[in-house]
Amino acid sequence: MQMPSMPQPTFYIFKCEQSAPPGMPKPSCVNQQTQELFNHLAQTLMQKGVFGPVQAIRTSCLGRCQMGPVMLVEPGHYMYSHLSKEKIDKIVEQHILGGEPVIEYLIPEQFWGEPVSLGK
Amino acid sequence: MQMPSMPQPTFYIFKCEQSAPPGMPKPSCVNQQTQELFNHLAQTLMQKGVFGPVQAIRTSCLGRCQMGPVMLVEPGHYMYSHLSKEKIDKIVEQHILGGEPVIEYLIPEQFWGEPVSLGK
Fold it and tell me: Where on the tree of life does the source sit, at the highest rank (chains A, B) (predicted)?
């Protein structure tokens, strides 16, 4: 008898959870105004009944502090920037449930250029 | 004058950094035997001169505890399981620097089946 296989997550959503000490001039993805975004994302996924197949993951710094709060949706490699609760709602609805990335919320191309080649 | 664009990272390597309390029967990706793996990965990338274009990211639980330690390489959506320092060395050499994923270290297909559709 063949065992049923365990499906991979339909989406991973990697939310940068890096904060900076109060008063530090460098921007960060988590501050007093934005600290609820991860929970908002997780709760929205639960309310939509897709928490499980969609995994919300906390990460260390994703290296796009100036564009924060940011999160990366995989598969697809979609980096969203300048997040708010409203933007997260639309991303869940249109991209996660609907399969259509929200192009206008993606990080500006200026900050997401072609990757450098590491080829030997 | 056009500003030069900032390249996206060539690779993100998402290393699960979830630990469990001592004595807990559930497996986890970080324990006394495996707690050095993230630093080993970061140091290896530094030694190879690719830390920067390659970003090593710490994450919360990736949901494959039984297969841990695990890490996900993006873009490409390659989930590696049962990691060791030696496996990380080979993944950096062959996949990150050489562009050829290490197929034999990928998570078994049994645990990475076709994702469920969320389509409405």
Answer: Bacteria
CA nearest to A17, candidates B88, B31, B17: B17
What does the alpha-carbon distance between residue A97 and residue B89 come to, in Å, rounded to a whole number? 38
The tens place of each residue's pLDDT in chain A, 120 residues long, gives: 566 789 999 999 999 999 987 777 778 899 989 999 999 999 999 999 999 999 999 999 999 999 999 999 999 999 999 999 999 999 999 999 999 999 999 999 999 999 999 975
Q: Calculate the CA B39 to chain-centre distance.
A: 12
Token representation of residue A58: 């906390």
Characterize the bridge pairing of strands A54-59 and A11-16. Answer: parallel
Contact A112 B8 (CB under 8 A): yes
Q: Do A118 and B50 touch (CB under 8 A)?
A: yes
pTM for the predicted model, two decimal places: 0.94
Residue extents of the structural domains in chain A:
11-19+26-111
Read off the DSSP letter of residue B102.
Answer: -
What integer best gives the mean pLDDT of chain B?
94
**Which element (helix H / strand E) includes B52?**
none
* Yes or no, beta carbons of A5 and B110 under 8 Å apart: yes
Domain A11-19+26-111 classification at class level: alpha beta
Task: Give chain A positions within 8 Å (CB) of B11.
Answer: 115
Query: What are the tokens at A112?
Result: 């997401």
